[in-house]
Amino acid sequence: MQLKPAELIINEDGSIYHLNLLPEDIATTIITVGDPDRVHQVSRHFDTIEVKKGKREFHTHTGHLNGKRISVISTGIGTDNIDIVLNELDALVNIDFKTRILKEHHTSLNIIRIGTTGAIQPDIPIDSFLISKYSIGFDGLLHFYEHDEINYTKIEDEFIAHTSWDTNKARPYVLSYSKKLGELFSDNRIRLGFTATNTGFYGPQQRQLRIKPSQMELMEKLSTFSYNDLKLTNLEMETSGIYALAQLLGHEAVSLNCILANRSTGEFSITPTQSVDNLIEFCLKRLA
Q1: Topology adopted by domain 23-287
Q2: For strand 190-197 and strand 267-268, is the pairing parallel, antiparallel, or unpaired?
Q3: Calpha distance 123→119 (Å, rounded)
Q4: pTM of the model
């Protein structure tokens, strides 16, 4: 099947529409970060950098570290951007841009998110690290794609009952990380977590500035949810989308989180840049 120009949009220079990248510009190991400025925070550790490209909030550096080729790309914030980034990264390796036909042989990417997050359990320390073994998405992205048995419906049902979830909203979906990548980053210093992915930073995460969130009791319900001793640990805005599309597209994905805030205790890190850099260094050591 040949993809139509309105489905696979290619720029005049042959690059993919939003990311502005050519197929040869990316490695099969890709680190995603939200903040475009964090791309340099990662790539400054590379031995060499061969690609530097950017368009909108999507900035990409590709280089080598200890002989391993790695790309780092900024996604911006939210699962809506993740939908763009994951689909276009997949297209770069699994669609022939000259013929607009899917390649016969599938290429699997290793996708590692390095992000910041807020804990919702009081025993999770500020500036610590957390790997999202599971993620529950409130964004609804998974429901826009055909999918079979990749999500944990029993956990979803328990969560919906515990929170009295509004049935007018998208059904929450639960997914897990890539076991292969999870084991790569396994460390006694890093907690395995159950991450909630929200559709926004303020109201959806029950932050009140001038507008009162509609469900102020939701934070308490999130922090008290438990399924076979599995408790929700933290809130952020991308992980569920990454896990959903990675699994649907046949890629490996894991989300590494730096705890900058604790919503239960009200604390926020006084050294956020250094803490994130510590997580970056840990990640790169494991990859290279």
Answers
A1: Rossmann fold (3.40.50)
A2: unpaired
A3: 9
A4: 0.95
